[in-house]
Design a protein that fits this description.
alpha+beta, seven-stranded mixed sheet, about 30% helix, about 35% strand, globular
Length: about 150
């Protein structure tokens, strides 16, 4: 996507990134932030320092982000959000490409995500495979995995 770059998240951006997550989640509630579930995650400075927090940047402002969680047997996608005005514009695919390259560089073999059911289609298009439904912190999620060697192709 033209004019968009990928870079590490900055601690000073925490309030903006939390607002971006809320706007992104509101996409599924008709744009009403007040209808977004209370389980909406919030980033911390520790997340930025330890979870490979990465943003898609346009004109100096983040328009998407992801974080990764390192586990013993897989690499997990902690957060993956695109700001509401940019959903469907290619920003998610751009972030995904960077995420998969980062996962490979970290030596991961398997990528896992607890996806919101409405995001399942995106992850399937990116090559992930649905496994089963689970509930995490009161939110229904679809557990999906992908083989890094297949995802980087």
């Amino acid at each position: 996507m033209e004019g968009v770059s990928i870079r590490p998240a900055r601690p000073a951006e925490l309030p903006f990134l939390d607002a971006l997550i809320l706007r992104s989640k509101s996409h599924w509630t008709g744009g009403r932030a007040e209808d977004v579930p209370a389980v909406t995650p919030k980033l911390t400075q520790a997340d930025i320092a330890t979870r490979h927090a990465t943003v898609a940047d346009r004109g100096g402002a983040p328009i998407g982000l992801y974080t990764l969680n390192e586990h013993e047997d897989y690499l997990g996608i902690g957060l993956f959000f695109v700001d509401r005005p940019f959903i469907g514009t290619g920003v998610g695919r751009l972030l995904w490409g960077d995420l998969v390259r980062r996962a490979a560089a970290l030596g991961a073999r398997v990528l896992g995500v607890g996806a919101e059911p409405r995001a399942e289609g995106f992850y399937l298009r990116m090559g992930m495979v649905g496994r089963n439904e689970t509930v995490h912190k009161g939110e229904r999620l679809i557990w999906m995995t992908g083989d890094i060697a297949e995802l980087v192709r």
